[in-house]
Amino acid sequence: MYLQLERGVSPETSRSYQSDLQQFVAHIRHTFTTKGVPQPDAIDSLSIRSYLKSLSDQGLKKPSLARKLACLKSFFRFLVEDGRVSRNPASTVRSPRQGTRLPTVLTKDEANTLLDAPASQEWLELRNHAMLETLYASGARVSELVGLNWEDVDLESRSILLRGKGKKERMVPIGTVAADAILEFQRHLPHKANFSKTGTPDHFVPGSGSQPLFLNVRGGRLTTRSVERMMKQQTEHRFNKTVTPHTLRHSFATHLLDEGADLRAIQELLGHASLATTQKYTHVATDQLMAVYDRAHPRSGSSHSTLSEEDPLTR
Question: Most buried residue, 5, 9, 33, 209, by most Cβ within 10 Å?
Answer without folding.
Answer: 9
